Amino acid sequence: MTRYLFVLAVFLLAVPLSAKESLPELKAKMDKIAEGFGGVLGYSMHFRGTPDERIELKGDETFPSASTIKTAIMCEAMHQVEQGKVKWNQDIPVQGEDYRQDGGFANHFKVDTKIPLCQWVHLMITVSDNTATMNLREFLGQKNVNDWLDAQGFKNTRLLNGKKCDELGLRPLQQKWGLGMTTPNDMVKLFELILDNKAGSKASCDRMMRILSHQYWDDCILSQVPPNVHAAAKSGALDQCRSDVAVVDSPGGQYILAIYTKEQKDTSWTHSNEGDVAIRTLARMVWEHYNPDHPWKAPEGSDNLLPGG
Question: How many CA atoms lie within 13 A of 129 on its CB side?
């Protein structure tokens, strides 16, 4: 029996194991999804493990940011807290009709209701509340948000939708891109600044990561990550575009993934929207590439329990 086991062991060692998928192979698979997409799709992925790896497609091309630009507004809020211009628990009154929009809870708040800055930020990020965003944009100052982005070296990421668009010369860009504009590479960089405590003080960045970890809208990248794995994200959506950025602390290593679409033919608002499906597909590919020893897939029926749609 011992001799048999020894021969079997030698045989198994001699049989070549299936080679792990290479990074170029992962990129080729992801690019194929993009090529077949009914619109324009770009992505950027940075694996912050060993080895340090990056892949991208249209990484420096401009896309509508949709709600992912709200991450920059949060950074400016923290910046002003650090400067002593505002306080984290400072009350900010709810404004009137010019500062309200569907999407979230705050649209139902009574005018002049006082909400602390910290709660406005949570509403803007965790449930992507548009009324919270509009109130914060005007309270903090659209120009201040863009000045902060400039100071961090961002040239292609801007908050565009605000009362002073004409005064700031942003109206043409706002008409083209909507709430904001960015690139996949820029958004990976923005998340890295927060992760590496470079978007503010260590305490500020710690708080921002905690807020980004409390996502209600977890129907894209986060839906392809097991619930026991820590991840933080910010997504966005418009009729002809979808966007999602996430940092995932997977067993195989930490990675940041940003996926953006524009000019979509599918303008539906369901979970089967082609942009949403493409983001989930790419996110699944990245998870499987870096976690071959941790197979996981969303259980049957999960699509029926995703938020919205």
Answer: 21
287, 229 Cβ separation under 8 angstroms:
no
Q: Which domains does the chain have, with CATH numbers?
A: 21-61+184-206+217-292+302-309 (3.40.710.10), 65-182 (3.40.710.10)
CB–CB of 40/278 below 8 Å?
Answer: no
Closest CA to 114 of 92, 133, 130, 142: 92
Cα torsion at 82, 83, 88, 93 (round to 10°)? -160
Q: Read out DSSP for 149-163?
A: HHHTT-SS-EE--ST
Q: How many CB atoms lie within 10 A of CB 211?
A: 21
Amino acid at 223: S
Q: Alpha-carbon distance 294 to 297, whole Å?
A: 10
- Calpha distance 38→263 (Å, rounded): 8
Residue 8 reports pLDDT greater than 70: no
pTM for this model (two decimals): 0.92
* Strand partners for 260: 42, 243
Helix (H, G, I), strand (E, B) or coil at 256: strand
Tokens of 97: 């009709």
Mean pLDDT (whole number) for 158-172: 91
The residue with tokens 């990129």 is 27
- Per 3-state DSSP, the chain is made up of helix, strand and coil in percentages (nearest 5) of 45, 15, 40
Which tokens belong to 255? 């990675």
Of 41, 39, 21, nearest to 29 (Cα)? 21
Query: Which tens digit of pLDDT belongs to each residue from 196-249?
Result: 999 999 999 999 999 999 999 999 999 999 999 999 999 999 999 999 999 999
Summarised one tens digit per residue, pLDDT across range 243-278 is 999 999 999 999 999 999 999 999 999 999 999 999
